[in-house]
Fold this sequence. Notes:
This protein is of the alpha/beta class. The protein has helices at about 60-75, 80-100, 100-110, 115-135, 170-185, 200-210, 225-235, 250-260, 285-295, 315-325, 350-365, 395-400, 415-420, 435-445, 480-485, and strands at about 25, 30, 40-45, 50-55, 145, 150-160, 160-165, 190-195, 220, 240-245, 265-270, 275-280, 310, 365-370, 375, 380, 385-390, 405-410, 425, 430-435, 450-455, 470, 475, 485-495. It has a seven-stranded mixed β-sheet, sandwiched between helices. A six-stranded mixed β-sheet has the order 9-8-7-10-11-23, with helices on both faces. The protein is globular. The site of 7-thionicotinamide-adenine-dinucleotide phosphate has 27 residues, from helix 7 and helix 8.
Amino acid sequence: xxxxxxxxxxxxxxxxxxxxxxxxxxxxxxxxxxxxxxxxxxxxxxxxxxxxxxxxxxxxxxxxxxxxxxxxxxxxxxxxxxxxxxxxxxxxxxxxxxxxxxxxxxxxxxxxxxxxxxxxxxxxxxxxxxxxxxxxxxxxxxxxxxxxxxxxxxxxxxxxxxxxxxxxxxxxxxxxxxxxxxxxxxxxxxxxxxxxxxxxxxxxxxxxxxxxxxxxxxxxxxxxxxxxxxxxxxxxxxxxxxxxxxxxxxxxxxxxxxxxxxxxxxxxxxxxxxxxxxxxxxxxxxxxxxxxxxxxxxxxxxxxxxxxxxxxxxxxxxxxxxxxxxxxxxxxxxxxxxxxxxxxxxxxxxxxxxxxxxxxxxxxxxxxxxxxxxxxxxxxxxxxxxxxxxxxxxxxxxxxxxxxxxxxxxxxxxxxxxxxxxxxxxxxxxxxxxxxxxxxxxxxxxxxxxxxxxxxxxxxxxxxxxxxxxxxxxxxxxxxxxxxxxxxxxxxxxxx
Length: 496
Ligand code: TAP
């Protein structure tokens, strides 16, 4: 089994932040929910409540949309020159960097994510996303068109309007800024609903947005449950677009709600069951590192997790040994401990779901190579888990588990690898490990997925669009395509 942290965590907890913001953020103010209701936010290290947060419902979404509508229809934000929005977004990014310790600690206790990773990588990178779109804010241009008739035309790229941004719990900071930054740069106004499991950082970002100078009503945050606050956003008649990241099941509900309300535009970034394909010529050490990272990073709570690992028969046995050896050094424990590489799963529901998939895998006849059990006495820790002898029709090979569980499978030919990698309803990402350029090219062009990583995994960048094929959704976050989701084209035609 994996190494475990020794349980004496107090020395790592340099400073547990005071939780300052627990109310809804509407029209530039922190306010209670209309009903006065609150819900608990849980620390997954212990299962104990760390805060009570305002539970927004339909009435609160209505108030937030009204504020966002007013800010869009009559406020300064969409009318500012792009360069003015740029300056404010840059200030917002600077404030994030200045408060990175507090934000990282908040996210670590709310989501069980690694403190040092958040502090040095994820949150600074999220601030860079703001800077990236700040740089785009004054370069939003249309085209001049010659036309075939005796007319000429130009196009304007206008902000799409009031947007609803529905965020999952696995990357609360990154997802918040991946959606909020391009929407702000485009000149939109917005209502954001963070996941009920991880509401705290979104409220902190709302506070920083005000300090940065974002006008009241532009960025509103309604915390609460998906079935109430989330559903009110997706069915709202006065929201022009919803950008959603989360499960395929909820993605379907959002699409239905958009269709039966005002036909709002939607973009959906949904589940995945991504393949990592290791060919015979791969360097075993590198391949085993990528495979472990691919499924264990962020405790496997990542939509692009490489949870199906296909290994060619010639390298298979050496790969399995290497994987077993390396998994032993993977430390599970308190996310504040700098040695730890895997913290607790986000909540009890997710913890139970993962363990039940592990039981299914055993019942279906897969062999447990590594792990398979909870770790420690308290909190939602699970051992890194690898199954061998997995067949394509087993549940563990088909369903998104969203946890540290790998299904390892053997293949013979390039054609077989492509066919089996594509035999899924999802199409979010894929990884290929090979030194053969021809194989890399053939496979990357044949796999139906939105992102292909060759000899790397999780190589995200603000400049690289990211999203799914098939039932992994449609629309792209990040890159200039991420910005275009929040813009619409208007053609202006005149006679010549
Ligand atoms: P979801 O239910 O899809 O949650 C994502 C977001 O949608 C949350 O903010 C959620 O709110 C909200 N939501 C839930 N029901 C809604 C509705 N009817 N209308 C509008 N919004 C709604 O995911 P989950 O329950 O947290 O996790 C379940 C599974 O989804 C996971 O095990 C995993 O397989 C998958 N998942 C995928 C991703 C990515 S990045 N693709 C991210 C998270 C989860 P509340 O959670 O606050 O109620």
